[in-house]
Specification:
The complex is a heterodimer of chains A (about 800) and B (about 400). Helix content of chain A is about 10%, strand content about 55%. By secondary structure, chain A is mainly beta. In chain B, the strands form 2 sheets. In chain B, strands 2, 3, 5, 6, 7, 8, 9, 11, 12, 14, 15, 17 and 18 form a 13-stranded mixed sheet that branches. In chain B, strands 10-13-16 form a 3-stranded antiparallel sheet. Classes of the chains: A mainly beta (about 800), B mainly beta (about 400).
């Protein structure tokens, strides 16, 4: 196997040498380049998608997400480099380019007027012109904060408002993207992968909106640098921190190394959070902390009642980011994220003993990144990250006998995923036509499941597969109208013998200055999956497993075609269609024998297709978007293992998150300088459910051997053949800027489901009566919430 | 997965999950619906047969065939809220005023929750309490003794044929005949103060009898043989068949190097708190175990401690040359005393019916077919049990 790795490495190196050499042949040695970083002069934060142009020459480019720009193909001459960004003063610099020169210029722009929406508009226009990727949406933290939310702003819930994205129900923030299940989405925070990013069983995501600088969401057709998932990519970049406006240590020797620029906080009905930031030696730092206080309120309640508190629940999360520019060419950054939930209770069995239950789950991620920009031709990012997701249950119980004494037992269940990943990605700006991106990703997974009873191990399964991937992509702009993207990703998954190759293509054609035609095709593989039952209505925690030897990697293709139009200043529209055939997908085997390990999961096929419309307005008093999607999803799995996939055996069905028609509206209106209101409205087809036809007494499904009439169970009709009523929900919010005692802040009132529409979560049958009775359990009723933000 | 007391863990995890769910679902609400809203789902459904035929080669007289019908959603006969057998007792109108007054015994007239409203710790009176009429939820209304006779099929013809070539009774056909009190089970009923039967001995346990088909005559069911079940139901116009192979009971591993135990004649001896357990091996075709632990109060009196299903442990099976091994640890709540551990083992057919989550009529879950080749809800399978005594000291 090591020999295979080396062979593939050789192939890639040769391919890269060929590509780079070939590209060199097409570039004129006499052409020069200009490169550098664009930053905000007040905070030091990078400015993404800033426009840089050589005045009068028609040559220019835009800065990337790091604020870095490169202008290639510059003949020897004297120029004026103009850097412009709405909301900032335009900056002109004189540049004298020698023959084949390589000039580095870092520029800081001064703010002209703080117009958050205008900055977003400009960035969007640049992305519209530059980016080839289809199905891409960028969401700023302002949009996340502006949307009315259930208690707290939540990035995932904002994304659920986009066409093609939905959730299972109101209680879940997990993303269902174009018919794919939640575990098919790659969630990255500063480049590190996050598993199970939810609190309270999925009601909230673990990301603090205030700490987010940018969130790029790719609903499909994403390029080769992203692998290991087959539906979507959510790439979250956290803030770097304000490196300029230190307040505490000014004038002292410490100021060179550390200072504090600002403190922001928020108190809501759910939690308290605080964000601190400031300059660091040659860089910046940012810390954000959040904790809920259910347990503290409960403690107070029990203290008042003068009784023992027998339970406890809380969650907390934290994010830290440190950035330092060692010199012009090298930058180091370190970011870490931790989010944990804890549930514990004690049941006291009077004098006969007690039961102690402690359940703890969550993520922690650390990411060290080195950015190296030796010259304007190359931009290298190397990162080493470690993510640990763990789920621990500790149950101990004891009994006391007046004669024999005390005895106790302890049951431990531990499930963990450890992901250590070394990544190297290089952007090679060959010339004004070709930008090559290539890289390697070496990931070592440690997945373990352990169950112990005292000293006896019932399970102790550990798997440590390695996943090695190479990728290379060329973005080619043969002319001003056309941009093409070819890429290939090859992966060696240690548990399988074969190599997995994922070719991907993208095309962008400017029909007019404001209308773009985009298309993409790609193949995708996934090597991890969650074993959660797809029929569960509440997804409390995820159980991750690597694809075992006896199953193939999950796989599908994305075939996407769309048109995007810049309708006006800050006004965009797009229509997109997709087809996603799944050649291999996994599910839990309902027929699995618990005594056998190799039949827990079962494979099948599926398909998803649809069409989406999105109209987005990014500036002015009224902003927001309108989205509509129609989709069709079907799965085909041989659940009973008889070699046939038959509808009458419930093997061809719609998944329970399937909603053919979804309509979303998000509006944000700025009444005046102090007041803003927002509205979200969602209506969709009802989700499918399996009808109940009758009832029968049965010993099936772990009935009682002694009492064969204990279980009165449902007799079901065809799986997911009926639908719940339509889903309708409207949320409104009002935000008012306040300044009590000179502290800048915001006061928010939000009403979730303000029409109090009853949306059905599940039907509940009571068969103890004749005729049987049925009730509907609903999702969120009308819920008002309030919150306060402050900034120091 | 060996459930053992892990089912306690599972129950606790489920409880914890439910706690979280309740916190979340507390934000939701519930709305009663009219079932006619769903009439297009169920209006064409016709009640069908459910058959559970279980052969016991160790105690053939315990072999049983249960034939019952399913119940339609809109059925109004089975759970009808009426006192069909005349055993419901209204409140005692001591002052003869025709209505219930505080202090008068309610007897069975406890209302929908079946609990007397004045009992300590319970909320107030609920609907139907003391109204003088039988209501659903009250004792002796729509209980097993009324329901089961309405769903039993008593008119079927049940035949079991030995189709194991080479067996001494190959080709023999055994008849099963209807017995109205074929078997029984026990249920626990709440009896609060003021309730009828409050002074009866052991008032909390009730024995329920049900009807089924039992072996007629002295025929026997042999171990390791294949049998074909045939059921002719005139009522449903069906000829239902299925086959199964009977398996032997488990063998306790008392002298194994891997599971050292102290044996005093036929009794395993354990020290309280020392954390030991009992292991056994079973037929290669075995599937699910059912564990029952009973405490011997006296020489002929057994009290149930717990019972639960279990499965062979792959870790132990792999070191036993692939022969399935099960294991039951002794938990701290097994206090010093004498116990009887019974392990019942199901064969593949019965085990799959028991644990599989496939739909009831899936052709891989049920091994019964009618004359048209359609799947019939249920199973024909076998179960065999073996017991061992345990002394904890």
């Amino acid at each position: 196997m090591r020999k295979e790795y080396l062979n593939n490495l050789c192939i890639y190196v040769i391919f890269l040498i060929y590509m780079v050499s070939g590209a060199q042949l097409f570039s004129r040695e006499s052409d020069g380049r200009i490169s550098g970083y664009i930053r905000d002069s007040e905070t030091g934060e990078p400015l993404m998608y800033t426009n840089t142009v050589l005045v009068g020459q028609g040559i220019g480019s835009a800065s990337n997400t790091y604020g870095y720009f490169v202008i290639s193909g510059v003949p020897a001459d004297d120029y004026t480099l103009r850097v412009s960004y709405v909301g900032y003063k335009t900056e002109d610099c004189d540049v004298s380019m020698p023959l084949g020169g390589d000039i580095r210029i870092d520029i800081e722009l001064d703010r002209e007027s703080i117009q958050g929406e205008d900055i977003i508009v400009t960035a969007e226009r640049i992305r519209f012109m530059e980016k080839v990727e289809i199905s891409r949406t960028n969401i700023s933290f302002r949009e996340v904060k502006a949307a009315p939310a259930f208690i707290e702003s939540d990035l995932f819930r904002s994304i659920q408002m986009l066409p093609g994205v939905t959730s299972q129900n109101d209680f879940s923030s997990a993303l269902i993207v174009r018919g794919g299940s939640p575990d098919e989405n790659l969630i990255l925070l500063d480049g590190a992968e996050i598993y199970n990013p939810y609190h309270i069983g999925g009601v909230f995501s673990t990301f603090n909106a205030d700490a987010i600088a940018d969130a790029e969401f790719l609903a499909g057709g994403y390029p080769v640098e992203y692998g290991g998932r087959i539906s979507s990519v959510l790439n979250i970049t956290s803030k770097e921190g304000n490196s300029k406006s230190g307040k505490l240590t000014n004038g002292t020797p410490l100021a060179k190394y550390w200072d504090l620029s600002g403190v922001k906080g928020e108190i809501s009905a759910l939690s308290s959070k605080v964000l601190l930031e400031g300059p660091l030696y040659r860089g910046s730092w940012m810390i954000s902390l959040r904790r809920t206080y259910f347990d503290q309120l409960a403690k107070l309640y029990y203290w008042i009642k003068k009784s023992d508190q027998s339970w406890k629940y809380y969650f907390w999360d934290s994010q830290i980011k440190l950035v330092s520019d060692i010199n012009k060419k090298n930058r180091l950054s370190f970011s870490t994220f931790t989010g944990r939930d804890r549930l514990a209770f004690i049941i006291d069995r009077d004098l006969s003993g007690e039961i102690n239950f402690d359940w703890d789950w969550g993520n922690s991620t650390s990411n060290l990144q080195w950015r190296y920009v030796p010259n304007s031709r190359y931009f290298s990012e190397m990162s080493l990250s470690k993510t640990v997701y763990s789920f621990d249950v500790d149950l101990s119980f004891s009994s006391v006998d007046s004669v024999a004494g005390k005895a106790s037992n302890r049951i431990l269940v531990k499930n963990s995923v450890e992901d250590i990943c070394l990544r190297e990605k290089v952007y090679c700006y060959l010339n004004s036509y070709h930008t090559l991106t290539f890289g390697i990703e070496l990931k070592r997974l440690g997945i373990s499941f352990k169950q112990m009873l005292d000293d006896v191990k019932f399970f102790d399964i550990s798997q440590n597969p390695m996943i090695l991937s190479f990728f290379v992509r060329d973005q080619w702009k043969p002319n001003a109208l056309l941009a093409l993207q070819f890429g290939i990703r090859t992966t060696k998954y240690e548990i399988h013998k074969r190599l997995y190759t994922e070719p991907r293509l993208g095309i962008k054609y400017n029909l007019t200055e404001n209308t773009v035609l985009k298309g993409s095709w790609g193949k995708y593989y996934q090597f991890l999956f969650t074993t959660n039952d797809e029929n569960q209505i509440l997804r409390i925690v995820d159980f991750w497993e690597p694809i075992p030897k006896y199953l193939k990697a999950a796989s599908n293709q994305h075939i996407i075609l769309g048109v995007e139009r810049w309708l006006g200043e800050g006004f965009t529209g797009s229509i997109e269609s997709y087809y996603k055939p799944y050649s291999y997908l996994l599910g839990n085997n309902p027929n699995n024998n618990p005594a056998i390990d190799t039949d827990d999961f079962i494979a099948g096929t599926g398909k998803a297709r649809g069409i989406e419309l999105l109209i987005r307005k990014l500036n002015g008093k009224l902003t927001g978007w309108l989205g509509y999607s129609y989709n069709y999803v079907q799965k085909r799995i041989d659940f009973n293992g008889d070699g046939k996939v038959v509808a009458s055996d419930d093997e061809i069905y719609y998944p329970n998150y399937y909603r053919p028609h979804i309509f979303n509206l998000f509006l944000n209106y700025k009444i005046n300088k102090r007041n803003r209101i927002s509205l979200t409205l969602t209506t969709s087809s009802g989700q499918p459910y399996t009808p109940v036809l009758g009832k029968v007494y049965t010993q099936s499904n772990f009935g009682d051997i002694d009492n064969p009439y204990q279980n009165l169970v449902n007799i079901y009709g065809r799986k997911n053949s009926e639908t719940y009523p339509k889903y309708i929900r409207g949320d409104i919010g009002w935000t008012r800027n306040i300044s009590p005692y000179g502290i800048t802040g915001k006061f928010k009132i939000q009403i979730i489901n303000f029409t109090n529409h009853f949306n059905v979560l599940i039907y509940n049958w009571d068969h103890s009566k004749s005729p049987s009775q049925v009730s509907a359990i609903g999702m969120f009723p009308i819920i008002p919430t309030i919150g306060v933000e402050f900034e120091l | 997965m060996n459930f053992n007391h892990s089912n306690f863990l599972i129950r606790t995890i489920i409880f914890a999950l439910l706690s979280v769910c309740l916190i979340i679902l507390g934000a939701g609400c519930e709305k009663d619906l009219d079932i006619t809203t769903f009439s297009k789902d169920y209006e064409s459904y016709v009640p069908e047969l459910r058959i559970e035929a279980v052969f016991d080669p160790v105690h053939p007289e315990n072999s049983i065939v249960r034939i019952d019908r399913s119940i339609a959603i809109d059925d109004t006969m089975v759970f009808n809220g009426l006192d069909d057998d005349g055993d419901w007792a209204p409140f005692s109108d001591l002052n003869g005023n025709g209505k219930w007054d505080a202090g008068e015994p309610l007897n069975d007239d406890l209302g929908e929750d079946g609990i007397e409203g004045q009992d300590e710790g319970f909320p107030g009176r609920d609907d139907g309490e003391g109204n003088g009429l039988p209501d659903q939820g009250e004792p002796n209304i729509d209980e097993y003794d009324e329901i089961l006779p309405m769903i039993h099929d008593t008119t079927a013809q049940v035949l079991v044929t030995n189709i194991q070539e080479g067996s001494p009774s190959y080709g023999n056909t055994i008849v099963f005949e209807w017995v109205s009190r074929a078997d029984s089970f026990q249920i626990f009923k709440y009896r609060g103060p003021g309730r009828r039967n409050a002074d009866e001995e052991d008032p909390e346990v009730e024995t329920v009898y049900y009807g089924a088909y039992r072996l007629a005559g002295q025929d026997t069911i042999r171990c390791g043989c294949e049998y074909e079940l045939t059921i002719l139901s005139e009522k449903f116009g069906l000829n239902i068949t299925g086959t199964t192979i009977t398996i032997p009971p488990v063998e306790f591993l008392t002298n194994s190097r891997l599971f050292p135990t102290v044996l005093d004649e036929d009794t395993l001896v354990f020290v309280y708190g020392a954390n030991g357990g009992v292991a056994w091996q079973s037929d290669i075709r075995s599937s699910v175990y059912y564990i029952k632990m009973e405490k011997m109060e006296t020489s002929d009196s057994l009290v149930l401690e717990y019972r639960h299903p279990a499965f062979p442990l792959e870790i132990l099976t792999s070191v036993n040359s692939g022969i399935p091994v099960g294991y039951e640890p002794l938990f701290s709540d097994i206090l010093p005393g004498l116990y009887k551990l019974t392990v019942s083992v199901m064969n593949e057919n019965y085990g799959k019916y028991f644990y599989s989550d496939l739909p009831l009529k899936d052709p891989e879950k049920t091994n019964l077919r009618d004359q048209f080749g359609n799947s019939v809800i249920g199973v024909v399978g076998s179960i065999a049990d073996n017991s061992i005594f345990i002394r904890v000291q």
